Amino acid sequence: MTDQDVGHPEGTPVDLPLLVCVDDEPGALASLTRALSREPYRVLATANPYEALSLAGRSRVSVVIADQRMPDMSGISLLRLVESRSPSTRRVLVTGLPDPRAVADSAGTVVERWFGKPWDDEELRRGLRSLVETPPAPSPGADSLFAMDGRGFLREWVCWLEAEGKTSFNLLARVALSLMHPGAAERGLVILVRNLPRLADAPEIFLRGLQAGLARHRSRSDLVDESGRAGALVRSGFEPSPWLRIHSARPRKEWAPGLLLVLPDPVELGFLRFVFSARGFRCVPATTAKGALRRLEGGAVETALVDGGIHGRAAETLLEALAERGKPPEVVLLSRESPPWNTGDRFWWRIRGCLDKPYTLQEVLDAVGPAGRTAPEA
Fold it and tell me: How is domain 258-368 classified at the architecture level of CATH?
């Protein structure tokens, strides 16, 4: 599989989102790649589902598009294996069967979007843009360790916890396993928990057990709770612990400060979206500069967190566009190295700071600042 195979010129930037199309019919593959030829993606095509699965396991694949009826493996079976091997990869099914919705629904959450054959090219492009620009949430089964180790953006070790239907014992067992990992012992642990109010027993039991376990390990950790329940317990008098920092803002019913997140890595984007939503921000996520500007058509943001390494001069173009807005946001740049362009006098007054990767959770929180700002006047 190569970019050249599907009509993309040699030298297509490798940091563009990667889409893999899988279909045993050459005509269908040609139609897919032709429909996507002018989109800002790398598009790879193959008739071999095992080749696509291997690629998803060793590369950063944004989307896998699979036909349902293939001789070696069904599309749903392939997407299920992709989900287990690369949870951040989005999964799309195409099928010529009479009732494509019923086929997709039979797979549950494995199929995130479906298209019948023949599809409408514009509808296909619009649906894929939405998937690529919206980071995946942790899946309902993401109660096992979700390793950020090796991604290169965060120093700490991270685990996701899904609380719905679980007991405090279940969650604490996962945390105990995390604390035994060398990455957590060396760099600290960040715990992200979803649906804490839906825990089978009381969230207070989980928090007390977590504090006790961290004290035994003498491990200072961070708990990020997107529901706001942990923060409510602390505000109501729950005794804090020096071993646990809790990030859990009071849910906002009306106005919330807007935070634009522009990062090409969907895992990093999903992580930061979760964290800052738990801090009380209204997050506007995008994986490309063009997608960010499109998402901003719906409203203003007060702060932008931008990966300075996004494709070519796209970051500079984005900053120029933001600076021209009526109320330009303050910008925090993330980068593994200095951006390949000079901000000069055009942007410096709006750039709040630059943060090198890998960063710690506290560093990125400090760089963006708190969400406790007053609402704008009507």
Answer: 3-Layer(aba) Sandwich (3.40)
Phi-psi region of 374 (alpha: psi -120 to 50; beta: other; left: phi over 0): beta
Q: Which CATH number fits domain 4-133: 3.90.226.10, 3.50.50.60, 3.90.550.10, 3.40.50.2300?
A: 3.40.50.2300
Q: Torsion angle, CA of 77/82/84/87, rounded to 10 degrees? A: -140
What is the identity of the amino acid at 199? L
pLDDT in tens, 246-288: 998 876 656 688 899 988 877 788 889 889 989 989 888 887 8
Which one, of 82, 14, 2, 86, lies nearest residue 49 by Cα?
82
Which tens digit of pLDDT belongs to each residue from 196-228? 999 999 999 999 999 999 998 888 899 999 889
Tell me the sheet residues that pair with 95.
Answer: 116
* Alpha carbons 364 and 356: distance in angstroms, whole number: 10
